Every structure is written in C-alpha cells, then in structure tokens.
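Exercise: predict the fold of this chain.
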Amino acid sequence: MIKIKRATWSIPYAAYLFVFVGLPLVMIAVYAFTDKSTGQFSLINFTKFFSAQEDFHTFIYSIEKALVNTAICLALGYPAAWILSNSKLNRSSITVMLFILPMWINMLIRTMATVALFDFIHIPLGEGALIFGLVYNFLPFMIYPIYNVLKKMDRSYITAAEDLGATPFQVFTKVCIPLSIPGITSGIMMVFMPTISTFAIAELLTLNKIKLFGTTIQENINNGIWNYGAALALIMLVIIGLTMLITDSDTNREEEAGGLI
C-alpha cells in the first residue's frame, strides 16, 4: 500500500493560492509599475495619483468615511455583543442568529432594499444615507467577533475583580475591555478595510454622486486603464497591510498588559 505524506494533501491548496491569490497580486504589481505607453518600468502611475487632486481627495474621503463607519459600528456593536454574551440577560441563541442573518444575504441586495426603503419613506439619498448603509451592512461584522471573544472569556477574572472590591465600571474597563481586544481588533479590520474598497453601496445610496476609492478603481479598470487602476489597488493594499501590522502590534501589547491584570 502506497503511503501518502500529509504534506502532499496541501499541494491542491498551495496551487489554488498561487493561481487565485499570488498570481493576481503579482499581476497587479506588474501593471502598477509599468508605463502603459512604453511598457517599461515606471512610477508614473503613482505620481499621477498624487498629482490628481480628485482621486487623492477621494482616497482621503474614503478613509474618513471608513473611520466614521468603524467608530459607529464599534459604539453600537460592543454593547450589543456584551448583552448577547451575558447568559444572565440572554439564554437563547435566537437573538444572536437575528444579528447574523443579514450576513447570509448578498450585500448588493441589502443595499438595494435600503434604497427602496428610503424611497418609500421619502428620505433623500446622500451622505447620510451612505453612512446608514455602511453601518447597516457592516455592523454584524463588528458584533460577531466581539461576541465570540466575550462569550469565551473566563468569568473567573470578573469574579476575582469583584472579590477584590472593583466596581462594575472598573470590572468593565479594567477586565472585560482588555480581554476583548482581540475581538475588537478583528471587528475593526472586518469593517474598516472593506469600507475603503466598497463601491456598490456608495453608488446606490448616493445615486453615484459620492465616490469612494473602490469606485475610482472600478472606473479605471472598466475604462481599460489597467495600469493606473492597478496602482490604485496596490496603494489600497499597502494601506490595508500597514493597518493590519499596527493593529496586530497593538493587540499583542494589550494582551501582554491584560496578562498582568
């Protein structure tokens, strides 16, 4: 009988990652650093981005809206996750399922339903509708990772803090929040990064009057400006990578501090 090494089973997954992840990233980098007119290595696509006021302002605007959306989702999501994870207040998983159900529906369908709802109650589409749509679509992605961390949290830490005379506010700020940092970080990453790159929500909820960075990338790719569109996508990937590194380092420091509580 022929014995197959365990490493052999990873070959299909490695091939899949190479074809559908690694190769597209390499192609983006090649297009981004190539001058379309000459076909040679060039930084012209990046200099064009920083010199094009509209595209650069769209990028800054997208980051601003991503920060606003992340802050609102965190402000709404953490209390919801806290309530759902508290077994004394919620003994059924039905409520948790109600928060997760919207994630099962395509984001485009949810956004189109939001447009129809605003039209029905005669609310004008614009920046306010955009913020509402972003929060509505991404709030479950903030609640669920925080809920998972809080649900698995060792309650003996809370009991020990209460036995040592800590007030409920001190227990929450000194014990619960530090221990839930990994969930908060995951939620922030799952909300902040997609918000920057989204385009369908902005197009539908603002009647294409407000553009996010994802819309700019889409327009360049659809118009055949592959090199410039690839440069914009690469810039976004770099920002996302830096954000992940910063949040990971902050999470490690918080976990080390939490271990000293």
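Check your answer against the key: The first helix runs from residue 11 to 32.
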